[in-house]
Amino acid sequence: MPFEETVRNLWNEGQAADPTGAVRAFLRLLSLPYGAAVAARNGLYDRGILRQVRLPCPVVSVGNLTVGGTGKTPAVILIAALLRDGGRRPAVLSRGYGGTARAPVNTVSDGRRVLMEWREAGDEPLLIAAALPDVPVLTGAERVRTGRAAIERYGADVLILDDAFQHRALRRDLDILMLDAAHPFGNGFLLPRGPLREPPGALGRSHLIIGTGDPQASASLPGPPSLASFRGVHEPREIVEAATGRSVPLAALKGKRVCAFAGIGRPEAFRSSLAELGAELVGFRAFPDHHPYRPSDLEALRRLACQSGAEGIVTTEKDGVRLADYPAFLAELSLLRITMVVSPAEPFAELLFSRIR
Q1: Are 66 and 187 a contacting pair, CB within 8 Å?
Q2: pLDDT tens readout for residues 265-303
């Protein structure tokens, strides 16, 4: 079992995944220097020793306190679409996690066409670019530099930072924090003992929170009463034939025997979505987030589908991006397209636009 998968099992399963507690103790020890470094860095920003740069247009950040699984990418797409439809000229800035491009500024999309493939850009930036063909998407390690490029080259008048709650070098006008409503702080431990990137107290830097996941848990989101909170629902919209892009109604899944797989932050959420749509799930395989698929993976998935008597294979759009090198396998796949709906919608849009005037 890969190390990353082992660690995630420990986060979720606790003692059952580590009966002696030795691995948990070791990871807890590693969390101490990590936590000290996070506290020192935040202290330098809080005291103004490390200064934030303000760019000549509003900045919206979408991030979280934990590693993956809260739906940042659908939220970024929703926010960019709201701003675009409201007459603004947004650009999305991403670090480009997993991409090989190492230039200071990499243009994934110039707002007219997609210019990079997923191995260069990373899967999430390419997914955002495909969903927002008229919105520039840039990657680079320094958001200040990519932000200036978006303004100067593409006329952006509002910047959206993808996964940037911890990226404090760039001053933002609106800090949106995504939380899993049922488990907002994971198991309560910092990396690598748990999924927390920062202690829960960092929530106080945010301007609003969006709770995703369990709808029954969203009423008890953490934070002071003055902190605006909203409910974010990942809503299946359609089935897409991976090879052709042809849309198929969601009803096509009802009663269909399917084999499914996912390499995302929370593969169990994808599995639940298929079950809720009435699919008969006869086989399922979870991969690590951002998993780069190999021919051996595809053959294993084909065998699983064949042995389980599946009528089709279904995965996520994000996984479909990482399978672009395998057109024959794509021809066998359907993708579940999911969008985010934030409620109450009108107050959310009003707050978004009020912060970027």
Answers
A1: no
A2: 899 999 999 999 999 999 999 999 999 999 999 999 999
Q: What is the 3-state secondary structure (H, E, C) of 229-261?
A: EEEEEEEEEEEEECCCCCEECHHHHCCCEEEEE
- In tens, the pLDDT along 92-127 reads 999 999 999 999 999 999 999 999 999 999 999 999
Domain 59-233+342-355 - what CATH class?
A: alpha beta
Report yes or no: 304 and 283 within 8 Å, Cβ to Cβ.
yes
- 214 band by pLDDT with thresholds 50, 70 and 90: confident
Could you say which DSSP state residue 11 is in? H
Cis peptide before 344 (omega within 30 of 0): yes
CA distance 228 to 210: 9
Q: Render 303-346 in DSSP notation, one character per residue.
A: HHHHHTT-SEEEEEHHHHHTTTT-HHHHTTEEEEEEEEEEESHH
DSSP bridge pairs for 160:
60, 92
Q: Is 15 helix (H, G, I), strand (E, B) or coil?
A: helix
Cis check: omega of the bond before 249, within 30 degrees of 0? no
Query: Helix and strand tally (H, E) in the chain?
Result: 11, 13
8 Å CB contact between 162 and 140: no
